[in-house]
């Protein structure tokens, strides 16, 4: 086991070396250069990282920027990857995920002339833009939709890593459900307590199967790539699941009731566009229901399973949240 672990570390170090060497030999000198550091879920998680990657590529197609991305093998990789981009004179460096907060803070201080952005964390530095989302607003809305659709009066939640961010989802999801049905039962489970929890579909499926077997008929998955396991369980048990971050309705047509949209793609694309135009500003930029940074999805894959009456009630609740008539509980502000 120790030998395997040592070899694994060597392979990771070698992969890091190849990436850094690639920056040295393949980076153009003239283009506006954007470096994108994804977390462990990777660009194919069909969720959080995929959305960020899509937004960066939208900017690439529109603006003709040079884009380089890398998927961090573990949390220790963030700092050297961010620093490598800065050393190779990239104009904008974007870290995807709260786990990069300390690395961004440190590297941004070392390269004050470079611009950085981070998703889901606040870094107080003049050369860092913090892109944060009002996830609780969307989760509340999703909870209401789940409660309106459930036949059993039991709904579930599968979160990725057990951290305040995901507790924020869970708390608001339950509150939204109880707005519709005060007696509804809500069961929440989490995949794990380390960053590996974002990329463990088998564990996600195991938790979901257990919930479905307990009588739950709808599960909201906020678990990164682990959520794909929840969707597999929904297919196996012929029950509903709800996606998150990106529009995941297409992954299991007719079984994904809706997806809570967290427009990471637009946050990334707009930051790149503003930066290339010379309008980069540091500070915090928030995205919620009011500016459509948060929403729920309706398309050809779920329009037949999400009744018009449910959508209308959901839109009414959305309007009430935006108007301040409904105050959504926020785990971040829990006393």
TrEMBL record:
InterPro entries: BMP_lipoprotein, Peripla_BP_I, PnrA-like. Residues 1-29 form the signal peptide. Keywords: Cell membrane, Lipoprotein, Membrane, Signal. It holds the Pfam family Bmp. CDD domains: PBP1_PrnA-like (cd06354). It is a lipid-anchor. Residues 34-330 form the ABC transporter substrate-binding protein PnrA-like domain. It is found in: Cell membrane. GO terms for cellular component: plasma membrane. Belongs to the BMP lipoprotein family. This is Basic membrane lipoprotein. It comes from Pedosphaera parvula (strain Ellin514). The lineage of its organism: Bacteria, Pseudomonadati, Verrucomicrobiota, Pedosphaerae, Pedosphaerales.
């Amino acid at each position: 086991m120790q030998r395997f672990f040592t070899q694994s570390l060597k392979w990771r170090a070698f992969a890091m070396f190849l990436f850094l060497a690639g920056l040295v030999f393949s980076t153009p000198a003239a283009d506006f250069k954007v470096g994108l550091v994804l977390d462990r879920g990777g660009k194919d998680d069909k969720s959080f990282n995929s959305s960020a990657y899509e937004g960066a590529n939208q900017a690439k197609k529109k603006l003709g920027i040079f884009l380089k991305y890398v998927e961090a093998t573990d949390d220790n990789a963030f700092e050297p990857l961010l620093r490598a981009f800065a050393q190779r004179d990239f104009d904008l460096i974007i870290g995807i995920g709260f786990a990069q907060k300390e690395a961004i803070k440190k590297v941004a201080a070392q390269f004050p002339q470079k611009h950085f952005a981070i998703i889901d964390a606040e870094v107080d530095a003049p050369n860092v833009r913090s892109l944060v989302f009002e996830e609780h607003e969307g989760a509340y809305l999703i909870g209401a939709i789940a409660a309106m659709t459930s036949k059993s009066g039991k709904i579930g939640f599968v979160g990725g890593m057990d951290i305040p961010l995901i507790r924020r989802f869970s708390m608001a999801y339950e509150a939204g459900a109880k707005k519709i049905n005060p007696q509804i039962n809500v069961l929440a489970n989490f995949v794990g307590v380390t960053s590996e929890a974002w990329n463990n579909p088998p564990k996600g499926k195991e938790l979901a199967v257990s919930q479905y077997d307990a009588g739950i008929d709808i599960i909201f998955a906020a678990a990164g790539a682990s959520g794909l396991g929840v969707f597999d369980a929904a297919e196996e048990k012929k029950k509903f699941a709800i996606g998150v971050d990106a529009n995941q309705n297409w992954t299991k047509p007719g079984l994904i009731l809706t997806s809570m949209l967290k427009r990471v793609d637009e946050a990334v694309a707009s930051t790149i566009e503003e930066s290339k135009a010379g309008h980069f500003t540091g500070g915090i930029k928030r995205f919620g229901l009011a500016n459509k940074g948060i929403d729920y999805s309706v398309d050809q894959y779920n329009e037949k399973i999400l009744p018009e009456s449910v959508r209308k009630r959901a839109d009414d609740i959305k309007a009430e949240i935006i108007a301040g008539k409904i105050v959504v509980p926020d785990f971040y502000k829990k006393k």
